[in-house]
Amino acid sequence: MEKRENIVFIATSIDGYIADKEGGISYLEMIPNPDQVDMGYGALMERVDALVMGRNTYEKVLSFGIGWPYTKPVYVLSNSLESVPEEFQDKIELVKGTLSVVLNQIHAKGHHSLYIDGGKVIQQFLNEDLIDEIILTTIPILLGGGVPLFAHLPKELAFELKKSDVFLGEITQRIYVRKS
Predict the structure, then answer these.
(1) Which of 49, 129, 132, 146 could pair covalently with 111 via S-S, beta carbons 3.0-4.6 A apart?
(2) 3-class SS at 158?
(3) Which backbone phi and psi does 127 adopt, to 5 degrees?
(4) Structural domain boundaries of the chain?
(5) How far is CA 84 from CA 53, 59, 74, 92, in A?
(6) Model pLDDT for residues 117-164, shown as the tens digit of each residue
(7) Does the domain formed by 18-23+36-171 have CATH 3.90.79.10?
């Protein structure tokens, strides 16, 4: 059986927000990156089979107006969306139900290494202890409020720090792996 893993790759402010009070993410570009250093994103995309994201993240990506940026299959968790734009129907699949039902559907399609994205979705996966690795990039700003990455959990989840890097002289990235 192929190894199954759920990986978070996300950036936050120092105070743990993934978006500001208006839902904006412009703070992510506050440090100049003239050489377009990808901070491990390319390596992550080589590792994963598919992405799982929530409706809010999906809609944020669509709002960029750049077309669909992913080459891997994307599963959007939503109980309210009924369809996706026609030009993305071969790239996006809407899924609903409990995480175990959704993961069984995704695994049945041969996708076992998953990039989990979006605040609420990450919180759901953490709530059910389904995250194996967190790649957490911290932008040096205090937003003072907004969309938090972490929320209440029913139990403590222990992770081990595997690696720590600094990018562009100011952005820190830590890779944590779930302790068994």
Answers:
(1) 49
(2) coil
(3) -60, -30
(4) 18-23+36-171
(5) 14, 10, 12, 7
(6) 999 999 999 999 999 999 999 999 999 999 999 999 999 999 999 999
(7) no
